Amino acid sequence: MIQMLWGIFAANWYMFLAVAVTAYLIGSINPAVIVTRVVTKGKSDIRDMGSGNAGFTNVLRSVGKVPAVITIVCDALKCIAAVFIAVWIFSFVKLPSDDPWFVRCFTACIKYFAGVFCILGHSFPVYFHFKGGKGIVTAAALMLASDWRVFAAILATFLVIFIIGKIISRASIAGALLYAPYTFIITFVFDHLLTQPCLWYVLIATFSALVIGIFATVKHKDNIKRLMNGEEKKITAKK
Question: How confident is the model at residue 212 (pLDDT cuts 50, 70, 90)?
């Protein structure tokens, strides 16, 4: 199986490169920066306001509810767009096996591949001097596009932790840390043990989730410090 996957990569490396670049450029479109500039008529940059993060929570606190809603929707849509463009590009590839289960697993791996680069673009946007957001909403969109079961588990965890403490960063960090464990458990049980054995997909999906989870957690390092010191603020919205 590994040889088969390597053969696909070797024969279509340019497609992987095209997907990586496309996903990164789409991810680099940062709605938080754009929306804030539009709302303030070019007078303010969200990265100079509040926490300095170019993401949904900071827009909500510093700019308002409507700009925040636009930000979260666009952050999600750009990842979904990147993922489905990637799937479309690879729909032209002749796979070494036409087994439906192999095609499904390979397609899911392509989604993770595109999603990782979209998240990198979100956090290090080429259009905005490589200073972007933390990638939580973009990562959530990847979960939804790649495996709704993992998305549902992470969402449930996020909501429980947020409802209890009203602190988005704590819930986001918990979701990031649990992304890989949830992915492994769900894919191993439902896609390997209970159906057709597909261990290579389990490993690739779990590794991708682990990379994204670690990345998102590291991006929250300042929030972690504030949480440990009891200084992290509860969610509030600008009127």
Answer: very high
- Look at residue 198 and tell me whether its pLDDT is greater than 80: no
Neighbours of 154 (CB within 10 A): 24
The pLDDT-based confidence of 238 (bands split at 50, 70, 90) is low
* Averaged pLDDT score across all residues of the chain: 89
Q: Measuring CA to CA, how many Å separate 126 from each of 30, 56, 103, 223?
A: 10, 19, 33, 25
The pLDDT assigned to 57 comes to 87
Q: CA-to-CA distance for 221 and 224, rounded, in angstroms?
A: 5
Cα 169 from chain centroid (whole Å): 15
Please identify which residue in the block is written with the tokens 């510093």.
Answer: 62
Of 88, 73, 75, 200, nearest to 139 by C-alpha is: 75
What is the C-alpha to C-alpha distance for residues 158 and 11, in angstroms, rounded to an integer? 41
How would DSSP label each residue in 151-192? HHHHHHHHHHHHHHH--HHHHHHHHHHHHHHHHHHHHHIIII
- The CA-atom distances, in angstroms, between 144 and each of 46, 103, 115, 150, 153 are 27, 19, 11, 8, 11
Rounded-to-integer distance, Cα 61 and Cα 188, Å: 40
Model pLDDT for residues 83-106, shown as the tens digit of each residue: 999 999 998 888 877 777 788 888
Q: Is 27 exposed, middle or buried (0-12, 13-18, 19+ CB in 10 A)?
A: buried
CA distance 226 to 234: 12
Residue 84 φ then ψ, to 5°: -75, -25
